[in-house]
């Protein structure tokens, strides 16, 4: 193990895959597992059909991302952006989220790294009247009233120069943490 590159012991990580199970990008569970399995990743599994990979690794999340992306692209034939977090990071994230108000729902927007104030301001300028955005480091908590599709943020397609993101409901994150802790 290289000092500074790996955890002292394997930890449970979650990779949120952008653009999986949309359009004609619908790989089977076994295809995803086979694509990423290797000495760096053990106990690989998927959660739901929304592009969530779970595995154990000694790699830090930021180091796991490019390895996963390269393997997925080589196997699937198209680019797949991965946002990796440890289960502990997700547990801490969830602990900082208040209960949603009546009719509200929490979504979590994941970034590769903290996008900074300018990118967050651009995102906020896109928000609708029923959207609230709260920065949380490498994530933004998006709380909306009404259906997600009713918000202008629903598309969240990256614009030139904007950080690439993926979104999961806080409830999905909670279920992943509960299942794998």
From TrEMBL:
| Top-rank taxon | Bacteria
User: What InterPro entries does the record tag this protein with?
Assistant: DUF1697
Quote the protein name from its UniProt record: Uncharacterized protein (DUF1697 family)
* Organism listed in the record: Ilumatobacter fluminis
